[in-house]
Amino acid sequence: MFQKIDIWAITRQVNPLQMSVFCIIFAVLLAVSSCHLFWFWYKDYVPDGVTVVTVLVSVLVAAPMVHMFVMTVYTLQTANDRLVQTKTKLNFKNEELAKTKNALTELNQDLEARVTERTWELNEALKIAETANESKSMFLANMSHELRTPLNGIIGFAELIANRKILFADLQDEKIDEYADAIQSSGHHLHSMVSDLLDLSKIEVHQFDINTAPVSLHQIMGDVLQIFEPTAHARRQTIEVNMPEHKVIFPSDLRALHQILTNIVSNALKYSEDDAIVIISVDAAPDLMRFEIRDYGIGMSPEAISNATKPFSRFSDAHIASGESVGLGLSIVSKLCDLLGGKLVLNSVEGHGTTAVVELPVESIDTGEPDADISNPEELLSFAS
Fold first, then answer.
1. Residue 268 has pLDDT above 60, yes or no
2. Which of 368, 360, 367 minimizes the C-alpha distance to 336?
3. Alpha helices, H only, 163-275
4. Is residue 75 part of a domain?
5. CB within 10 Å: which end of the chain, N or C, has fewer?
6. Tell me, what CATH number does 290's domain have?
7. Residue range 364-379: average pLDDT?
8. What is the C-alpha R_g of the chain?
9. β-pairing, 277-285 with 238-242?
């Protein structure tokens, strides 16, 4: 109903001098009225001159006092306004300081977190670098022996053949053929090691190109088995293959897949005893090719499995003693599986053999009747001594 009137807000809008004059006039009128009323009541007792003198004295005394009072009020009011403004500014500054402090605290915490994270990353990188350096040092130590052994054989047998008329005048052709076979074997071993090194370096610098093309399952398995037939025959080992009898064609990189299978089968034969059996099972799902290579050789410990796909790792002393590997085969297999979008899974029990599973996703698989030259896949893909 009624609005609250702020007297101080109204007075702040009036000039102090104007307010002082207004108050003096008001005081004069009040004094005149009071004196007139007093004279009216007591005119029979007070002379006229006394009333006029009283009015004049009241005006002369009240005017400067009213003026001083008004100016004092205005001075106090102005000071109070300035104090309020100063307080408001201080509160605003305090809020800004609080915000700045919070921002600095958050920034400090963020910097500490970044420093901690970066320190952890650097420590991890240092550990990885130290591990890699240690692995490469071990690799170079082993590699020097691996390279020198076949090189010494090649040089030694080549010198024997070159100087046979001086050293062995009656050297028979059969002996020369034996030396030539040793040179050839050592050369193949050197070629294999150098090829592994070159392939690994290409993969790690992303220069190993994947060229997808139709691949015949029977053809690639026949090629892989043909490579290892002499080795398996010499050690009386058996390679058993379980795969679809019908023709299977799927898109993949022939070179990469061939290397994956040869490296795994090579390890399976290498780390198996004489007269042992290696089983290769192949499943062709609509969108997945699965290769399982199982052996019953020396196997691997859990620690060896975790290190199996690291470059230059040779698992254990038993693996070093039982083969000619330099520790690159499974590393290359794992990286090639990644390039093909697949994965390598190793399951092993030390002393009881290893199962390597390669799963490769494919867009489509074409199936049909067996090829004309594969009338009996079991006869072609399984052999023994």
1. yes
2. 360
3. 164-167, 173-204, 217-234, 254-270
4. no
5. N
6. 3.30.565.10
7. 54
8. 52
9. parallel
For residue 312, is it within any domain?
Answer: yes
In this prediction, residue 337 carries a pLDDT of 92
Q: What is the pLDDT of residues 286-339, one digit of tens each?
A: 889 999 999 999 888 888 888 777 766 655 544 444 445 556 778 888 989 999
Q: How far is CA 135 from CA 130, 214, 309, 311, 327, in A?
A: 8, 38, 13, 8, 10
pTM for the full predicted model: 0.55
Helix runs in the chain, H state only = 7-12, 16-41, 48-162, 164-167, 173-204, 217-234, 254-270, 302-307, 317-322, 329-339, 377-381
200-220: b or e for each residue (b if 16 or more CB lie within 10 Å)? beebeeeebeeeeeebbbbeb
Maximum distance among all Cα pairs of the chain, rounded to whole angstroms: 179
Residue 85 lies in a domain: no
CA dist 16 and 24 (Å) reads: 12
Cβ atoms of 130 and 307 within 8 Å: the answer is no
Would you say residue 339 lies in a domain? yes
Report pLDDT for 382.
43
Locus of tokens 């307010």? 19
Range of the domain at 365: 215-381
Number of domains in the chain: 1
CA distance 89 to 74: 22
Three-state secondary structure call for residue 249: strand
Q: Which residue do the tokens 């106090």 mark? A: 76
